[in-house]
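User: If only I could read backbone structure tokens as easily as an amino acid sequence. Underneath my words sits a plain record pairing an amino acid chain with its backbone structure tokens. This is the protein in question:
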Amino acid sequence: MHDFFGLTDHIRGVSAQLSTEGFVTFAPDLYRGQVASNRDEAAALARDLAWNRVAIELGMGIAALKYNYPDLRVGILGFAMGGAAALVAAASVADLACAVTFYGIPQDVEVENRQIKIQGHFGTRDPKCTPERVSALAQSLTDRGVAHELFRYDADNSFFNPTRPHVYSAADAQIAWRRTVTFLRANLSTEGE
């Protein structure tokens, strides 16, 4: 799931990277072909999103994947706004096995599905997903019995995005990627069943 700039080359690259790791990937385009070139454009595009529509469309995309690959376990991974969308999907889409959020926490959404596994990656210098918000998310998931692991990095929001060199942290991105791939393999593998 893309961040609020849209389905950028960076997000397409992450999808391609997941493919090389052996995963079937699908990168939804919430903006229907539009990509923001600056924060003001991105904010306008994000403002026009209807989150109930996002949840419905994600559910339809997951259903299409399950139809084409009946034995496939499906996970969702998102960045910033897309990370928040991943947690929205975790709360509302029944066929998900796991969700990964990179520096995204939705407002007023509680994940109560005890079948799903959650992983999160957050920068301690993030003004949006502050350490307090990350702690509140952890407590909420614990209170509801949702299995989760949340990692904190001495980094900023978007630390995983190399196209944002002023906040990119190559070392943290590498660690987060390794953790993500390990998590996805553990929760999406059908081997041994």
About this structure: The chain has one domain: 9-188. The chain has a mean pLDDT of 93.
